[in-house]
Design a protein that fits this description.
One of its GO terms (molecular function) is DNA binding. It comes from Natrialba taiwanensis DSM 12281. The chain has five helices and two strands. The chain is mainly alpha-helical and about 110 residues long. The chain has a single domain, classed as Winged helix-like DNA-binding domain superfamily/Winged helix DNA-binding domain (Arc Repressor Mutant, subunit A). It has a two-stranded antiparallel sheet with strand order 1-2. The longest helix has 24 residues. It is globular and about 45 Å long.
Length: about 110
C-alpha cells in the first residue's frame, strides 16, 4: 500500500519541523519565537503560542537562554520578555533549517505532480 508523503501544504510551517524533529517543548518554543522574530514575548505568550503549559515553558527557558538562542529583552511589570537571538549562530541555523525543510518538502511535492 502506498503512503502519501507529507508536504508543506499538509501542515502549517512550524508543523513541518515538528513532524521532522518531534514535538519537544524546546522545539515548539523556538518555533513560536520565530513566528515574529522582531517581537518579544512573556512566558504566558510563549506557552500559548507553543501550545504548552506555562510550567513547561518555565522549566525549559533557562536551557534556551544558556544556549544563547533566545535572550531576555526587558522586564514588563514583573515578567521578563524573551526574543529569539538573531545574532546567535545556532538560532540562525534553526531558522534556516525550518525554512529549508519547508522549501525542500514543497519542492519534492512539486516534483511529484
Amino acid at each position: 500500500m502506498a503512503t502519501k508523503s507529507k508536504t508543506m501544504d499538509d501542515e502549517p510551517e512550524g508543523q513541518v519541523v515538528l513532524g521532522l524533529l518531534g514535538d519537544h517543548p524546546k522545539t515548539k518554543m523556538l518555533l513560536a519565537l520565530l513566528t515574529n522574530p522582531d517581537r518579544d514575548y512573556n512566558l504566558s505568550d510563549i506557552a500559548r503560542m507553543a501550545d504548552a503549559d506555562r510550567s513547561t515553558i518555565h522549566r525549559h527557558i533557562d536551557d534556551l537562554l544558556e544556549y544563547g538562542v533566545i535572550k531576555k529583552t526587558r522586564k514588563a511589570g514583573n515578567a521578563w520578555m524573551y526574543q529569539i537571538d538573531k545574532d546567535n549562530g545556532a538560532a540562525e541555523a534553526f531558522a534556516n533549517f525550518e525554512w529549508e525543510a519547508i522549501k525542500a518538502l514543497g519542492e519534492s511535492r512539486d516534483g511529484d505532480e
